Structure of ABC transporter permease subunit:
Amino acid sequence: MAKPLEAGRIRLVSRSRRQLASYMWKYKALYVMALPGVLYFLLFKYVPLAGSLIAFQNYNIFNGITGSEWVGLEHFRKMFEHYDFLRILKNTLLIGLYDTIIAFPAPIVLALLLNELRLVFYKRVLQTIVYMPHFLSWVVVSGIAIGILSPSAGAVNHFLGWLGIEPVYFLGEESYIRSILISSGIWRDSGYGTIIYLAALAGINPDLYEAAEVDGAGRWRQTLAITLPSLLPTIMILFLLHIGKFLDFGFERVIVFLNPLNTENGEILDTYIYKAGLLQQQYSYTTAMGLFKSVVGLVLVLIGNFFSRKTTGESLY
C-alpha cells in the first residue's frame, strides 16, 4: 500500500516541477529582466548581513571574522553607557520625528494642489520644476542652502536687513540646524513623492467626482470624501516604508551641513558611526550601533503594519 502512495507522490512532484519549468520558460523574458535587481539585493543587501556578526566580536581586520575574539553584548553595553549616546540618539529621534510630521505630508499636499490645476501644460511645467531638485546631490543642495543663508551675502539675511534685523549666522547656531535639515529635505525630495501620489490620483474613477458634484459637494468636500480615502492605501504603504527608516535619516544629507558650532543638535547616529567607525576604526562598536538601528526600524515596521492592518486594512504583508 505504501509503494503506490509513494509512487503517486513522486509523480505529483514530477508534474509540479514540469509545470514550474514550463511556466518559467513561458515568462523567461520577465525573469531575465528581474535578474539584475535580484542579484543587486542578494549581493549588496543580503550577503552583507553576515557582517553583522562583528558586532559581537572585537573585530580585527587582519584576523577576519573567523579569527576575531567573541565578546557577546559588550559593544552594546558600551554603546548605551557612552556619554554622548543619549544626546546623539535624542537628535536622531527628534529629526526623524520632525521629518515624519512635517516632511512626509508635504508631497501629499503638493500633489493635491497640482491635481487641482486644469491647464495641462502649466501643470506639467510645475511638476517638472518641483521634481528637478531630486536629481541634485546633497553637496549641491548644501551649497545652495549655505549661499542662501550666508550672514554676509545670503538672500535671507538681506531680507532681514530690510526689516532692520541683524544678520543671523544660521549654520553657526545649533538651534537652527534641525530646521535647516528638514526644510532642505522637503525642497529636494517632495517632488519625487509628488509623482507617486499624482499617479495614484490618476487612478481614481472620475465618476465618483461627477456623482459628488451632482450631490452638491464642493472641491473641498470631494477632497475629504473621495480623494484622501482613495489615496489612503498609497499613503499607508509609503508611511510604513518611511517609519522603517526612522533612525536612518541619512549620512549624506546631514554631514554636509555639520560644523563644530551646530554639532550639538545636528549630529545623528549615521554621522557618529562614520566618525567612530571609519575615522577611528571602531568597526565592532559601530556595527553594534547599525544593528541597533536596524532592529528599531524592524520593530517600528511590525508595529505600524499591525495597526495599519487593523485600522485601514492596508499593510505591507
About this structure: The radius of gyration is 26 Å. The CA atoms of residues 267 and 313 lie 38 Å apart. DSSP finds 16 helices and two strands in the chain.
